[in-house]
Design brief:
By secondary structure, the chain is of the alpha+beta class. The chain has two helices and 13 strands; from the N terminus they run αββββαβββββββββ.
């Protein structure tokens, strides 16, 4: 009888240890969003029309060893929170209109000239002059055999000349059986100029 109780106790402790491990991984996998210092930041206040911005911008990636590379970045993807592809709308789109509707919601509308094509609403909150979108954390797979956990954060702000600042960070961690791996989280910042017809 004592042997059976001991086995039950050991099994219970193993389960508790596994649960604690996953809780630690879940909370330890939160990426840190580092905000660059900006002297020309204008604090967002709700409700507020933020501005109109182009759908894509070209970013310059500088390298010491290779030629500098220009990468087109689709600004709309930062505000998209629904599933599905927007390829048809993106080929027709001319600009994005951003409005802070409340302290906790930002509305992004994709336009073709004056015709709205698609509307997305981001949930989040105002923090230190920025609108910080709700933290996204997802777990897929079957722990402990094969799983991955993705964590992402994003915030937007505006400058004195109405330029849009977007800071985003994400990281992915996971494992196959007992081998764990992950990507370090890092912050990417882009500045989007105002859309001009």
């Amino acid at each position: 009888m004592k042997g059976k109780q001991l086995m039950t106790f050991v099994f219970g402790e193993k389960i508790r240890l596994v649960i604690l491990l996953f809780i630690a991984l879940f909370y330890g996998s939160c990426v840190s969003l580092k905000t660059p210092k900006r002297a020309d930041l204008v604090s967002l206040q709700a409700p507020m029309f933020i501005g109109k911005y182009p759908v894509t911008v070209n970013r310059m990636v500088k390298s010491e060893f290779h030629k500098d590379t220009i990468i087109p970045t689709v600004v709309w993807y930062y505000f998209k929170n629904s599933s599905g592809k927007d390829s048809l709308e993106l080929t027709q789109a001319t600009h994005i209109k951003l409005t802070l509707t409340s302290q906790k919601q930002l509305k992004a509308i994709l336009y073709n000239r004056d015709v709205p094509l698609k509307t997305e609403v981001l949930k989040g909150r105002l923090r230190k002059g920025y609108f910080r979108a709700k933290h996204e954390l997802s777990l897929s797979g079957v722990p402990p055999f094969y799983w991955s956990m993705t964590s992402s954060k994003m915030q937007v702000g505006i400058g004195r000349e109405k330029q849009l600042f977007i800071d985003s960070a994400d990281e992915t961690n996971g494992s196959i059986l007992i081998v764990m791996a992950g990507t370090p989280g890092f912050t990417r910042s882009i500045t989007v100029p105002v859309y001009e017809k």
